[in-house]
# Entry
Amino acid sequence: MASAQEILSLYRQFLRYSRQFENYNFREYFLRRSREEFRKLKEFDGDTSAIIEKAKKELGVLRRQSKISQMYHFDKLVVEKVKKH
Amino acid sequence: MHYKMLRLAYSMRNVTKVARAVRPVPAARMQPVRFMNGVKFYSSTSSLTKEDVLARSISVLNSFELKVPSSSIGMETEFIKDLGMDSLDYNDVLVALEEEFDVVFDDNVANEIKSVGECVDYILKNYTPAEESLDPEIR
# Structure
């Protein structure tokens, strides 16, 4: 059984890697999916260990894909906020 | 031939002598550069103040759906008690703050954080200005 702390740490990592996607559509999609899934998990009562195990595997995939996404250039979309530096 | 070159060299030496006489090097320029207490003055020190961090944190918080007006947010504001967030919500905020300030909240720190002020303090402690971490030439 995973502790709340462990789940929140996993949640933060999902959000971190999701935010790193260069492509707007992927980025928003994974942020949305991560939030949705963790909300569902919060409501879920029962044994979460299988879900956590699966999430950890998916985190690895997410991490790899976000790194790959950073290797390519994607034009900014009109809906995207450009960072004011 | 050799004689000519020698003469040329000699005359050039004279020219520099004359030039030196006409334009004396200012004494101040000869002073060695003094470093003040090891402070590097080619890069500005961390210009991030507590007020800056708080203001930027509030603007990050504004991008979330808040139940209270952002003007009421201060250092003492607690995520769960005052902003009506749950644990998932405020961890979302933490990651947004990480991106804004280019810091990473340690797992044990993030689990302990309850208020906006604690975030601000952590950011101030762990923030490294871009100018110091990287040579401007390669940036």
Remarks:
- Chain A has three helices and no strands.
